[in-house]
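Project outcomes to date are best conveyed with an example. Our students and postdoctoral researchers have been running inverse folding experiments weekly, and each run begins with a structure described purely in tokens. The record below, which covers 180 residues, was selected by the lab manager from last quarter's runs and is presented without edits.
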């Protein structure tokens, strides 16, 4: 594992959660870092940091990230996801909205209005060392990792997703993870 990169990403996760706390903005880790924060330690190298944020918080979050030295990166439509870079690392914020029944939805882009898994934002507070951060629910994480190749035809099932599913299912079966 690339310890320098892992430490840098952990520091940027801590910085981002501090920014969100100051703004009163809710964020949730998703993807590989959500798995690791659920388990309590890094399990592998990560190419980026994936988050969920509400679309109503996108502008203040963007403004504060830019003030903190992050740069906007090209990516999907801005109402679907915001991508930022700092110190050679990338953070992507997939944006969420809600319907009138409170279901979590994709906020924009080609899948605007599609539902995310129920209970996705009810995940625990994950922790690695001194850094705590909300993560999406492990059940939603598993569903997303299983279904992405179905939801996005042409996107192959990745070995890291298969491994993340296995690790999460084992942790849930064995009662591991935060608050257990």
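After processing, the design step wrote out the following sequence:
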């Amino acid at each position: 594992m690339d310890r320098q990169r892992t430490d840098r990403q952990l520091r940027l996760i801590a910085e981002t959660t501090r920014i969100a706390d100051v703004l009163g903005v809710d964020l949730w880790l998703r993807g590989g870092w959500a798995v690791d924060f659920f388990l309590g330690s890094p399990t592998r190298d990560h190419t980026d940091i994936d988050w969920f944020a509400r679309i109503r918080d996108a502008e203040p979050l963007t403004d504060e990230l830019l003030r903190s030295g992050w740069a906007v990166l090209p990516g999907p439509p801005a109402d679907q996801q915001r991508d930022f870079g700092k110190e050679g690392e990338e953070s992507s914020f997939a944006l969420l909205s809600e319907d009138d029944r409170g279901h979590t939805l994709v906020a924009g882009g080609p899948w605007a209005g599609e539902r995310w898994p129920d209970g996705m934002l009810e995940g625990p507070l994950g922790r690695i060392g001194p850094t705590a951060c909300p993560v999406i629910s492990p059940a939603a994480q598993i569903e997303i990792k299983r279904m992405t190749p179905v939801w996005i035809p042409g996107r192959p099932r990745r070995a890291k997703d298969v491994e993340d599913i296995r690790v999460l299912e084992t942790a849930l079966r064995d009662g591991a993870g935060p608050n257990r």
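The mean pLDDT is 94. Helices lie at 3-23, 31-39, 58-67, 138-151, 159-174. The training component of this project remains on track.
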